[in-house]
């Protein structure tokens, strides 16, 4: 009878290791409580004071360490794709804005009634200086 329970826990652990659980969502962290839940038992059913679970606890700890090592070694591809998409969207937006600025500058220079005030002031000052020089002669 006890071996049936341990066999259920072992198969639940194997499903979690293979990332094909029946009860828990895929990608669940491998813990003693999750092994118990995946086996259809309660969270505290694998207790430390029961020697029959010693081997199962060791297997679970080893599988959890392996899962942690694998997860830390590979980058989060979902986040990488998200940031790549955001980067390309921002580049597209920048190119669109540069194009729009260029069009507006062309439109502005094409208008005849727009003059640069600073250059107009310089021309007036130069003309008045020239006229005053001619009067002084």
TrEMBL record:
Protein's name in the database: Uncharacterized protein
